[in-house]
Design brief:
By secondary structure, this protein is an alpha+beta fold. It contains three helices and eleven strands; from the N terminus they run βαββββαβαβββββ. It has a five-stranded antiparallel beta sheet with strand order 10-9-8-7-11, with no helix packed on it. Strands 2-5-1-6 form a four-stranded antiparallel beta sheet, with helices on one face.
Length: 171
């Protein structure tokens, strides 16, 4: 089987997250996880100081672009290219060019992966962020994105929340 590479996809401005969600839904519905492995909108934390208050907020590193890790073939090209909001791949003509390892490293895409000892069904406590101190049950684990989805009780109903591996600990 061919090796998956990272490709840059150009989108309409402001549609990056919509394209990401639509692609992930298509991948799940068509069971293409083995050929289109990951879709990302590279983000970076930006520190803003307003009225003497420091605020850290995530900003898109490359507005108008989404990166996709996939095995390039006619089918995957067609699926990505025909996703609503996508204007094309970055590369000469209609031939996408994969990112080099140096470019991937600079973006921090392949940051070292974390080994976790959690599994679906475990009860965990949130140790940082807006949900700090909240307990929840793990419903899903995405090792590629290094996040877990837990259900927390909010206003009397169970609500799914995505958290980074570093934000939780086993109870």
């Amino acid at each position: 089987m061919a090796e998956a590479n990272w490709y840059v996809v150009h989108t309409y401005s402001g549609y990056e997250n919509k394209v990401k969600l639509d692609l992930e839904k298509t991948i799940e519905n068509r069971k293409l996880q083995d050929v289109i492995q990951e879709v990302a909108v590279p983000m970076q934390d930006v520190v803003e100081v307003k009225n003497g208050v420091k605020k850290v907020s995530p900003k898109k590193m490359f507005p108008g672009y989404v990166i996709v890790k996939m095995i390039m073939n006619d089918d995957t090209w067609y699926i990505v290219r025909n996703t609503r909001g996508v204007t094309g791949f970055v590369g000469p003509g209609s031939k996408p060019v994969p990112l080099s390892q140096e470019e991937i490293d600079r973006m921090g895409i392949n940051a070292e992966s974390m080994v976790i000892d959690f599994k679906v069904g475990d009860t965990v406590t949130v140790i940082s962020g807006a949900w700090e101190g909240t307990a929840g049950v793990i419903k899903s684990i995405n090792e590629g994105r290094q996040i877990v989805t837990i259900n927390v009780d909010m206003f009397g109903r169970s609500t799914p929340v995505e958290l980074a591996f570093t934000e939780i600990k086993r109870m």
